[in-house]
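Project standup — Tuesday

K.O.: blocked on the structure for the chain from last sprint. Re-posting the sequence here as requested.
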Amino acid sequence: MDQPSLLNIHVKLLGFDLLSLTPSSINSSTFCLNGNPISRTEILGVITSRDHKPNKFLKFTLDDGTASITCILWLNHLNNPYFSKRQSATVRVISDMAKRFAAALQIGKVARVRGRITSFRGGLQVTVSDVVIERDPNAETLHWLDCLSLARRCYGG
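H.V.: unblocked you, prediction finished:
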């Protein structure tokens, strides 16, 4: 049976797995995980740094115990030409959600982050599309177990 494509799903990864991804030779917006093309990820960890530029971006670091991952949450939706072709009501909803995510992302909190894997200045980062602040004290352990199980069963690891 063929392995299903991982390209358009949020692949659960640990930090060291994310940082070991290699750029795809076929498409600049994808990366390879054990030969499988991926473009999106879900990571979970403690927020260890935060650099907020109002109405521009929030850059923060997520540490899961295996590595520190740089994440970028864009906050410039209302004045970004990329969004000018979308309906203004939709852009306002996206902008409001991003502002709520930014307010919730505080140093020391445990966050589950989903987003696109991107390269910036030679390093990998996650361009955030969704954030959940975890309240379950077991969330980190469960994420680790999920990542290990999925790596064996689905990701070819």
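K.O.: great, moving the ticket to review. The mean pLDDT is 90. Helices lie at 15-19, 88-104, 139-153.
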